[in-house]
User: Which sequence fits this backbone?
């Protein structure tokens, strides 16, 4: 015959268990209300940066301002072929990417930025390589196409191995129908690794 024994739990352990249970209940209530991501939210959130380069998708674009971050296609050499579906690139909320140009659909102030990186491992003695990168605006506001941002650099002055980056950025008043695109000189020296060549803007 087996005798069952009643195990006496110390009061301090019971109190600790009650406190932990109350804390877990509180967290279950407060997390959804405060916007803190839960395990379910994390599992349902798509990866923004995978090996396939899935495009970042926004569930609700109602209150979002126009924005885009484009990256150069690394598989097309000697050219800046802008893509919105590589790594962390995206385009959102009214902006359009068409024929390697960005199309504005809403009037407003925009911060426009771009970077091009160049590199090489050969230099002709006494010669310099000229590099340039610019953002051009095609708009009804002006009679001709306008260079919004532009910079130039030279390479091969002191070293055989060389690398140069040109970053441009500025704020501009853009209108519906405006078109932006980049123009680059020295494209045969472009470096197209992730984070080295990009083009984007966002509404302020």
Assistant:
């Amino acid at each position: 015959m087996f005798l069952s024994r009643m195990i006496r739990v110390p009061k301090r352990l019971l109190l600790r268990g009650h406190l932990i249970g109350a804390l877990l209940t509180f967290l279950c209530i407060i997390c959804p209300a405060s916007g803190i991501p839960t395990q379910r939210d994390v599992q349902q959130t798509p990866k923004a940066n995978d090996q396939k380069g899935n495009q970042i998708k926004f569930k609700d674009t109602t209150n979002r301002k126009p924005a885009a971050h484009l990256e150069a296609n690394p598989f097309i050499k000697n050219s800046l072929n802008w893509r919105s579906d590589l790594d962390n690139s995206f385009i959102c909320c009214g902006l359009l990417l068409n024929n390697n140009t960005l199309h504005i659909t809403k009037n407003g102030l925009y911060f426009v930025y771009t970077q091009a990186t160049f590199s090489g491992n050969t230099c002709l003695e006494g010669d310099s390589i000229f590099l340039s990168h610019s953002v051009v605006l095609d708009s009804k506001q002006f009679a001709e196409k306008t260079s919004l941002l532009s910079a130039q650099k030279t390479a091969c002055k002191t070293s055989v191995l060389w690398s140069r980056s040109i970053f441009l950025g500025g704020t501009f008043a853009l209108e519906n129908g405006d078109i932006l695109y980049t123009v680059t000189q020295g494209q045969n020296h472009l470096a197209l690794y992730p984070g080295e060549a990009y083009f984007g803007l966002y509404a302020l």
Observations:
- The CA atoms of residues 150 and 173 lie 17 Å apart.
- Residues 1-16, 26-54 have pLDDT under 50 and may be disordered.
